[in-house]
Amino acid sequence: MSDPAESFIDRAPLTRFHLKLTAFSAGGPLLDGYIVTIIGLALVTLGPALDLDATETGLAAASALVGILAGGVVFGRLTDRIGRKVMYIGNLIALSALSILSAFVVEPWQLVALRFALGVMIGADYPIASSMLAEFVPSRYRGRLLGALFAAFGVGAALAAGVGWALSAFGPDAWRWMLASPAVIGVVTLVLRLNAPESPRWLLSRGRRAEAEQVVHKIWGPDAQVDELHEPVVTPATLMTRLSIRRIAYVSAFFIAHVIPLFAIYSFGPTLLHDLGIGTESQYLPELLIALLFVVGSVPGLWLVDRIGRIPLLVSTFAIMALTFGFIAVVPGAPPSLLFAALALYAVASGASNFIEIIVPNELFPTSVRATATGIVVAISRVGAAISTFFLPAFLTGFGIGAVMWFLAAVNVFGLLATLLLGEETNGRPLGGLSRSQRLPSHSAVGGVK
Fold this sequence. Notes:
It holds the Pfam family Sugar_tr. By secondary structure, the chain is mainly alpha-helical.
């Protein structure tokens, strides 16, 4: 028996339109992975060029994460107010311009300011692209297609590692080319997104029925009934209910547990690998291999996420990652090949599950606050990531690589426990059904979307 909350979107087959929209939406997360990773490679020549100390190095890496925090909160709400498509395009223009400007910095504060601004635009794209895609795809494919967005983070990171290695041939000024290079991806993604339609769910939530009907008939045909997409309209005050707070806490907790070690590896990969005795001959090749393994891990993860569910995949991979970092902490002096194998296992396990953090918030919250809620959890996750990234250089200097590995193991144990205690399975449930199950106050009861 079909779920009464299912709409024609859930009953429809997967089409070329869905695949194209997924590819276009993935440009933002791909840029995120690229920008986060390229700074670690650029610092090899950037540090000496601007004479960065440990604090300035931490700020250069962490400023983008702080910007993601701000961008998620501000632009998530803005996306729910003015629409998916406007923001879907506008933030890429800003990303490309800021990347080019980064190549011309001459002072550390300029680098930090531009990295922060880049982070704001990256933070904006998470709720924009993921909300847009979630509102178009059938529920039985939603995990894989939304997961592919975050898997694109790994592709971007691997691409940055390869490009950074190639651009290192430019010598002392290689960092300028590295910091400007994201603009190429931004412009290409911008061109691809120009013809994307507005979300009919969002149009309905704003009372624009005729426009929603036009989009629905164009994509799903004249027999599709737009009223099947109707959801009660709620305000951001809804996110302060007990159930919503629990859901925000759940997603934020496992999101934080994923991104702290992820950004540690990406932002300071060459330094961490060197301290483990890995990559003493080349600072770029091991980083490239690790980045590629994140992508490799996403393949079985995307295959499993709609089959076994979100929570089983999270629990199993958190356990593997905690054990991996614990092993390195116990034997940091093991042969480099063994330590690299352990980091490779972490990368595969992380790649197999880290995309879930972009799936679940889009499934748990209704259309009228979906981007707002996604922006909030992205912002919360980046608080922990920004703090840990800022302090990591000093922590590594003061306490050594073993202490860093124990910390990363503990972070994964935290993610495991949070998932077991707070987790809510969303696999295969229609967006409308999830929204209605919350028993949230309706538009008439709360006063409308501001």
